[in-house]
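Dear colleague,

Thank you for sharing your sequence with our group. We've completed the structure prediction you requested, and as agreed, I am returning the results in plain text so they can be pasted directly into your records. Please verify that the sequence below matches your submission; if there's any discrepancy, let me know and we will rerun it promptly.
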Amino acid sequence: MVGSKIIICAPSNLGLRPEEGGREPGTWEAPLVLLSEGLQAVIQATDVEWLPRPAYRFDPEENTRIRNGHAIRSYSLDLAHLVQARLSDGKFPVVIGGDCSILLGCLAGARASGRVGLLHIDGHSDYFHPGNYDVQSRLGTVAGMDLALATGRGEKLLTEWPGIDGPLVQDEDVTQMGEREALSPDYAQHYGDIRNTTINRIIVQEMLREGMLATAKRVAAWASRGDLSRYWLHLDVDVLAEAVMPAVDSPGEPGLDFEQVAQLVSLLIRHIPVIGVDITIYDPDKDPDRRYAKAIVACLGNALG
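Please find the predicted structure tokens below.
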């Protein structure tokens, strides 16, 4: 049973590369836009809390090959403190980003109270790490490596956290749902080593073929295999097909539709002990008439309301 919901707004774009033309990414605006479209009412959240918007840097920083690495660590610690406090209050945090780097703070906050699992719904595995790309050739962006960092792969700056022994989440406690490129010949070059881990993987082609009910039952069966009783759910809206959701950093096909996402999230929360969720990657700059914001709010209302 989901407890009283509280929205935590995390207006960050720190984990993304600059847009074409050197523009700062617009994901930081997502919480304000989604709230303006009625998010609090449709998910029946009792309150809204805000973290301040962090400053985005275009240039590399000292002692890290991750874009905005030091700022992401600081922001993650602030978010972790807030998530931990609300969980301790018996609340169900709904964290609205922002880009996928906010997952680290969410997990750090949840992990402070003990072991936690991760339901990672994302159109990409987000598994870049120094073992599968040349860190000297370009700056890493956390939105493409959040799952790798969460499972302890990458710079210590974002894999080691105060008071937490080991990674934020163990491989065997993760299910990744929604990867769309796993059947591409290029996939092995980028994320392919995820296949050599114990991370449970369900690619989007399987999800579309089997349906959301069967997918949720499959994940629930996996989650019931042991004694883990706490899961965090990460929803990157780029798991939606580009045809219905182009207002994201990296849209693509195939993907889910809004009805399928709502059904999947609702079923997972109903059958798995999920303690909180985060929603990421919607970019209002790519949605001038707010049609996709309205669709996201309606979807989340059906999933969480």
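Summary note from our side: Residues 69-88 form the longest helix (20 residues).

Kind regards,
the structure core
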